[in-house]
């Protein structure tokens, strides 16, 4: 019995492995920071864009992603007709509209 005693003490004094929570804590903190810095603002911007596109109406003045400014003549599900000059109309995809201008902006330019 005395011969097995030092072995038992050696096992009790053996170092334990690192805590798994402390091992993954930096990765977890990095993910939380990444979410609040990149993912959340992008989702907010997408939500605002969807709301802007669904609120388009005839007579709104808009700018497309290609830089073409015009007045909305007709709004469809996927496409919108813009009047870019007197009696010059083009059809663009709704997703190509990047900005709604204040009323009267195109007349002043």
Automatic annotation (TrEMBL):
Subcellular location, record wording: Cell membrane
Record-linked InterPro entries: Preprotein_translocase_YajC (IPR003849)
Membrane-spanning residues: 20-38
GO BP annotations listed: protein transport
Membrane-topology descriptor: Single-pass membrane protein
Keywords: Cell membrane, Membrane, Protein transport, Translocation, Transmembrane, Transmembrane helix, Transport
GO-annotated cellular components: plasma membrane
Residue ranges that the Swiss-Prot or TrEMBL entry lists as coiled coil: none
Family classification: Belongs to the YajC family.
Annotated NCBIfam families: yajC (TIGR00739)
Name of the protein in question: Sec translocon accessory complex subunit YajC
Species of provenance: Frateuria aurantia (strain ATCC 33424 / DSM 6220 / KCTC 2777 / LMG 1558 / NBRC 3245 / NCIMB 13370) (Acetobacter aurantius)
Classification of source organism: Bacteria, Pseudomonadati, Pseudomonadota, Gammaproteobacteria, Lysobacterales
